[in-house]
Every structure is written in structure tokens, then in C-alpha cells.
Amino acid sequence: MVVILSFVGINIVPNISGNTGKICLISSVTINNKKSLIKDIKVPDCVEVGDLLFVDWRFDVGADESSIWTFLGPYNDHCAIYTGNNTFVDAEAHGVSANDYFHIYYWTKNLVFLRVKTANESQRLAAAAWAISQIGLPYQFYFRFPWFVLKIAHTNLPFPTAHELYCFELPWAAYYNQGIDIDQNGWKFPWWVTGNDILNDNNVEVIYKEIDNSTYITTPYKGVYIANTKILSALNKTIIFGDINIEAVTYNNKVTHMDFYIDNVYKETDTTAPYTWNWNERISGKKIIKAVAYDDDGNQYYTAITVWKIF
């Protein structure tokens, strides 16, 4: 397999938790290259059993129901634990299952592999084995009342959600059962574990990252906006009343400017981060906001969000 690597336009930083990460490789692979490599894609050589894979989905936010599973920030939409032989165990809508790497890789735009650095080899193997033992359990839906994403480490407890797992709960519980809590929030309220909780925990370190697109629209984002102010959050809808200051960010420090589009019609360019544009058109209906970032090597990265605008 030919691996196409590029360090162009990537902001190389310490690991997410602030420690110096032992990053064996940083790669940038385009979506088209991903498609061409998909059948033969293998986990990086540095990845070992018990390591964790965190990804960003390449869904446009608000485009459909899939945007429920997208979150602001890098690598925090979904996760899985490596169990060997190019196979991962993860908790998804259909329940806990084992999947080949390509099953996850195809749908991602950014990914990072983490290692629980405070675990020894025996603990990492045991965490992977525990995850395998959970295959077949149903998914614990994030937003289901009344328990939402309550985390439970012991899945044999007589509790309503003990026999269900959500994606971030799975690797957390796998290591919690080995005596290691990889949730930076611990058992403080709120009692759930998010992707960012694990990404920023001191027990983990980055061993590999692959960046395809680090551009995000941060405002507006999943909520109701009136007079340029967010008054209510939502799961996957963005509704705007009146003017709005659109803001986009990128983790690529070589970006020189950002173009803004509405329904693929060019509107404005900003050359200073954070990149903003005031959308003050008096129109109503379903619209797509797109921000396109350009770096000084000629690369382009875009992000889009579907919104409903009223006046």
C-alpha cells in the first residue's frame, strides 16, 4: 500500500492533554485518496491492542439526522478500541460490535490514536478483552430521558442502562475495570464521559494523528439565535432570526484567509483569525453556510452547516 503523506498546512502541537506526545506519524490524506486506499487501509504500525481511535465524522452539520453525532472540536465525534487484526470494537447505534478499520476510516475526516500511557501491557490487553466481551450489548442513546449518557463501569449491575453502552463509555469502562479512570472529570457531576474528557485526561497520550480538514464553523451552531445571540441549544437544528455574525476557526496555522458562501454563492473574505462575516441579508428559508479556508501552500479546506434563517 502506498501511503500518501503531507506535512503541508498542519499545525503540529503537543498532545491534546498538554504533555509531549510520542507521535509516531502525522499525516494528511485527502478524501479522494481515502477512497482509493479504503480497501487496503491498515492501522498505523505504532498502534497496539488496547489503543483508542477518536474521529471526526465528515458530515455537514445540520444536513441530516447524522449531525446529532457531530461535536465542535477535533477528534471528538466517535471512538473505538483496537482489539488486533485491523479490528476495532465500538458502540454505535446498532449496538456494540466489532468492525474492520475501513468501516470507521471511510467516514472520517480527522482521526487520532491515543494510548493509555499509565496502563501496562497486561492492562491494555485486558481492556481490549473486556470490550470484546461486551459485543452484542445495545447502544445507550445519548439523549434518551431520563438517564441520558450516564456512565456505568460494571455492565452486570441491575440498573436500567447497565446493559447499554454509548461510544465514549465503552473505552472508559474498559480501562476503569483495570483500575484506570481515563475521564478527566472523574466522578464529579455531570456523571458522563465525553470525547473531550478522554482526550484531555492525563492518563492518555497521542501516538498518531491524521488531519484531513481542521476547519469548523463555531457560530452559528446547533441552536436558536435571536439578535445575534444564542438563546437555546439544539441537537441538530440551527435557526437564525435576523442578522448573525458567522465565525469559523481552523487549527491549521498556515491558513491565510477564509471565504464565506451562502448556498455556494460567494459573499465575503476575511484575512484575520478568528474569521468572521456578518450575514445581514433579509431572506428566509433553509440555507447552507460554507466557509472555505486557504493556506499559503494552495490547499483548501471547507466546512458547512445547514441553517434555517428567518428574516
Question: What features would you highlight for this structure?
Answer:
311 residues; mainly beta; 17 strands; endopeptidase fold (from Nostoc punctiforme); 12% helix; disordered N terminus; seven-stranded mixed β-sheet; globular; Immunoglobulin-like
Q: Can you describe what's shown?
A:
With 311 residues, the chain is mainly beta. The chain folds into two domains: 25-211, endopeptidase domain like (from Nostoc punctiforme) (endopeptidase fold (from Nostoc punctiforme)); 215-310, Immunoglobulin-like (Sandwich), CATH 2.60.40. The protein is 12% helix and 36% strand. It has five helices and 17 strands. Strands 1-7-6-2-3-4-5 form a seven-stranded mixed β-sheet. Strands 10-9-11-17-16-13-14 form a seven-stranded mixed β-sheet, with no helix packed on it. Strands 8-12-15 form a three-stranded antiparallel β-sheet, with no helix packed on it. Strand 4 and strand 5 (95-100) form a beta hairpin. The radius of gyration is 20 Å and the shape is globular. 39% of the residues are buried.
Topology:
Elements: E1 25-27, H1 31-37, E2 52-57, E3 78-84, E4 87-92, E5 95-100, H2 101-105, E6 108-116, H3 121-133, H4 169-176, H5 195-199, E7 204-211, E8 215-219, E9 223-226, E10 229-233, E11 238-241, E12 244-250, E13 255-262, E14 265-270, E15 275-279, E16 285-295, E17 300-310
Parallel strand pairs: 1-7, 9-11, 11-17
Antiparallel strand pairs: 2-3, 2-6, 3-4, 4-5, 6-7, 8-12, 9-10, 12-15, 13-14, 13-16, 16-17
